[in-house]
Amino acid sequence: MDFNYSPSENEFRMELRTWLAAALPQGWGETVFEPEDEHERAMFRLDWERKLHAGGWSGINWPKEYGGRGATLIERGIFAEEMARARAPEGINIIGHNLAGTTILAHGTEEQKKRFLPKIISSDEVWCQGFSEPNAGSDLASVRTRAELKDGKFIVNGQKIWTSYAQYAQWCFALVRTDPDVPKHKGLSFLLIDMSSPGITIRPLRQISGESEFNETFFDNVEVPAENIVGDLNGGWKIAMTTLAYERGPEDALGRQIRFKQELDQLLITLTQTMQGNRSAIDNPAVRQRLARAISEIEIVRLNALRSFSRLLDGADRGSDASMTKLYWSHAAQTMYEVAMDALGPIAPLSGNDPAAASLGRFQLSWLQSKAFTIYSGSSEIQRNIIGERVLGLPR
Amino acid sequence: MNFAFDEEQTSLGDTVARLLADHAALVAPDLSADAAGPAWDALAELGLFAMMVPEERGGAGLGPVDLALSVEAMGASLAPLAAVDALVVTDLLARHGTPAQQEQYLPRLAAGELRVALAMIEKDDDDAPESVKAKVAGGVLNGVKLLVAEGAQADLFAVVAQSDSGPAVYLVPADAAGVSVRAHEDIDPTCAHAAVTFAGVALGDDALVGPAAPARTVARLFDAGAGMMACLLTGIAGRMLDTAVEYARTREQFGQAIGSFQAIKHRCADMAVAVEAARSATYYGVWTLSENAPDRARAVSMAKAYAGEVARHVCNETIQVHGGMGFTWELGIHRFLRRTKVIEHSFGSSVWHNERVLTETLRTLADGEAAQQAAA
Fold it and tell me: For domain B214-367, is the CATH number 3.30.1280.10?
C-alpha cells in the first residue's frame, strides 16, 4: 500500500495542473461561474469537454488507437483530483464516456470501436441511454420496446424513459426486445441508435429540481442497421450488465466525488462566512458533528474508488463491488446535501438569484437534484438485493 | 499509488487470524480474562511484538501498514487489548525513544517479555491527551489513571502527564514506590482494566519519552493508538457481518432462510457496505501513520470515528438479525458489543475525532485559500 506517486505520475499531475490553470476562464469559481440557463449551461459544458479533448485530456485511460490518452487508472484518479482542485466544470457527454464507450470497448466489434470511440472522446457525438421504460424500471429485463430484424435492419418501436441528455444526444444505446417468446432475460439485444433517425420523438420531463435534463423518448418504426448491434442477437442482457457495472463503478463514482467535494468545500467556506445569531454558522456544535461525518463519507467515496482501482489492476472482476460503490456514494451525497440545508439555518429555503441566498443558491438546487441519486442506475433497493445475493450469497 | 496490501502483509494477517482462531476461549461468552495470557504468549512466540522494533534493535522494522491486517484480525478475535497497547508503545519508542530507552525496553518488548500498559484516561477528562491533569514536577509524578488495560499485569506504564512545558509521555516501572493498582468493574472485564494511582512517584532520569519533542511524542502516541483501534473496530465489524450473514443464510422461518427476506437481506447489504467503507478509511489512516503524512491527524480521526460508528452499528444489527438468540448470553455476541464500546472510547471517542476531522479540514481549506491568494 502506497499513496505516494511515482515521478511520472507527478509529472502527469503537474502537466494537467498547468494546463487547467491556462484553460479555465480568468476568475473561474470566484467571479466567473457556469451559466444559469439550463441550455446555456449544457452548451458551456459541451464546450469545456471539447476543450479538454483539444488539450489531450479526454479518454484518459482509453487506448491511444481510438483517440484516448492511454494513461493508467491511477492517472485517471489523479485527473479526478486535479479537476476537483481546479473546481473544473462537469461534462455533458458523461453517458458517452462512462457507459457507451466502456461498453463498446468491452464488447464492440473492431469496426464499432473505430467508428464510435474517437467521436465519444472528442465529444463530437453525445450519447444517451435507452434502458428504462414506463413499465420496466427496477425490473429492467421486462423492457417491451420491440426490435424486429427485417431485410438487414432492425425496426424499433416503443418508449424509453428517464433518457438524460436525449435532447443533446446524437446517439442512443438501447436495450430492446428481439424475441418476445423466450424467458425475459434471453430475448434482449443491445442496439446503437442514431438519434437523427426518422421516427424518434423526444418529450422533456420536468424533474423535482425544475430542470428537464431527462426525457421520454418514443421510437416509431425507427430503422437501425443490423450492424449496430453490440454482442449477439438476444445476448443483450450480458452487454447491459457490463454497462451497469461501469455506470455503478469507481470511475463514475470518482467523477461525481469531484463535484461533491467541491460543493462540500464551498459549503464549509460559506458557513465560515455566515453569521447565525452571535456566532458563525460553522460554530454550531450539533452541525459540526454532522459536517465531520459528511466530510468523512465524501472522502471515503474517493478512497473506495481508489481501492477498487487497485483491485481491478490486480485482475478482480468489475461487477462484484459496483453496487457497493454506487450504494455508498449515493447515500453519502444525499446526506451531505441534507446537512448543508440544515447548516444554512433560517435562510436555507432561499434559492437561485435571491440576493439573500447563500452561495448563489447552489445548495438548494443540488439538494433537490440529489433525490435522484438513490433511484437512478438501479435504486438502492435493487443494489441491496444484488449485494445481498451476489456478494454475500444470501438466497433469492 | 497502490491501495492494496502486499503478499507479506496479507500473509501475516492470515497467520495471526489462524493463530488466534485456535484460542477459542478469547470469544467465549463468559467474561473471563483468563484467555488473554495464553493468547499473548502465542502472539509473542509468533514474533508479533518484534515486528515494529527497528532492525538495528533486533526486530523486523515494520510499520503500522504492515500490521494493519494483523491488528484487524486481533480485533475480530477479541485478542487482548494490552497486546495492541504494546504495539503502540513499540511504535512510539522506535520513533521517539532515546537510545537508552530503546536499548533498555525494545528487546524485551520484542520478545513479549515486557508487559507495558498505557495510562492515559482520567476522571473529569475530555478525550484530548492535552487535557490530562496528572503532573510531573521536580521529577515526581502524581495522578490517577483509569481504564488501564491489564494494569495489574503490567511491568511498565506509559503515562501521559503534564510536564512543565505541556503534556508528555513518561515510562514508569510498575514496582516503583507510590504506584498502586485497583481493578475496575466495567462492561468488558476481559480487558482486565484497572485504575492506577501514582502518588509521589519519583521518576528515573530517563523516564521522559522523546525529550526533544514531548508534544509531538504525545500526538504520535495518540494517533498511533487511534489508528490501531480503528483496525480493531474494523476487524470486529467484519466478523459480526460474517456472523450475521451466516445466520441469515441458515436460520429458517416461514419455511425459508430469513436471508431471503429483504428486511434481513438489505440490512446485511448495508452492513457490508459500511464495513468496506470503514476499511477504506482505516487503511488510509494507517498509511498516514506509517508515512507520518501531513494529513495524519485528519486521516486517523476519520478512521477512528468512522470505524467506531460502523462497528457499533454492525454489532447492533447483528444482534437484531439473530432475533432472540442474539440477546442470549450463550451466543456470545455481547462480547463483541462490549469490546466495541470499550474501544470506541479508547484513544478518543467518535465525537472527539469528528470534531478534529472538521477542524483539520477547515485549517487545510484556509491554508489552501491563503496559498491561492498569495499566488494571485
Answer: no
